[in-house]
Write a structure and sequence with these properties.
alpha/beta, Rossmann fold, 8 helices, 24% strand
């Protein structure tokens, strides 16, 4: 697999999880708990960017959305329900098959493709999302350049990723994986990206990063949006003027 951004071993790892992806108690249980938190941030960002009514149920009506590294479609389906015409791409064919089957069973029209975002030539998307993906790619600069190329003028990009800190190494890698909360081999701490590093990468690509919002965990709140970015963070991105 000679691709610009795909690491073959990463695609294979996540492809092996495909059949279990939609089970909220299976190997992707953590993603099921994380998804509503991310969606809260995404919905607020959509309303702020397009001045949509926060009470509206289809703020993305008439807009095109692209989710890169979509897995089995956990984010694509809510985006479709928010009114978007959605395309999801993933490096693992097994994930694309699982995503397509689940969308069909849910009565949703979502276009899924397998491949490298840097090579598919996708263009003109109003919203581009990529959740927990940049830490898995082979070339981060090439990956971000491809995301920018897919984004329509005036569009909105949203990214999330683990932060490279002592806390994330202890809790996300050594803790969550050893306790079986996340499949072994999911995280490679040395490939995590700090907010400053991501901001610089985006600036080099001609994009501007918003203020990062942390995704934290506590015994009382579980996973939640927070000012604490030590474990994981989510950001908006726009093209520079």
């Amino acid at each position: 697999m000679a691709n610009a951004t795909i690491r073959a071993e990463e695609a294979a790892h996540f492809g092996r999880l495909a059949a279990d992806w939609w089970d909220p108690k299976g190997s992707s249980a953590m993603l099921h708990r994380l998804n509503p938190v991310r969606l809260g941030f995404i919905r607020a960002a959509i309303d702020a960017h397009w001045s949509t009514d926060s009470r509206g149920v289809r703020p993305l009506a008439g807009l095109k959305a692209l989710d890169v590294g979509c897995g089995a479609g956990l984010l694509c389906e809510p985006l479709a329900r928010l009114g978007a015409s959605v395309t999801g791409i993933d490096a693992a064919q097994e994930n694309v098959a699982a995503a397509s089957a689940h969308a069909a069973g849910s009565g949703l029209k979502i276009g899924y493709r397998c491949g490298d975002v840097a090579e598919l030539g996708l263009r003109g998307f109003d919203l581009v999302t990529s959740m927990e993906v940049i830490e898995h790619v082979a070339d981060k600069a090439a990956f971000l350049a491809a995301l920018k190329a897919a984004l329509a003028p005036g569009g909105l990009m949203i990214l999330s990723t683990p932060n490279r800190t002592a806390a994330s190494k202890l809790l996300l890698v050594e803790g969550a994986e050893r306790l079986g909360m996340v499949p072994r081999g999911t995280h490679h701490w040395d490939l995590f990206v700090t907010p400053d590093e991501l901001r610089d990468l985006l600036a080099d690509a001609g994009m501007t990063m918003g203020e990062p919002k942390g995704i934290a965990w506590s015994p009382l709140k579980g996973l939640h949006l927070s000012g604490d970015i030590a474990l994981n963070y989510i950001v908006t991105v726009t093209t520079s003027a």
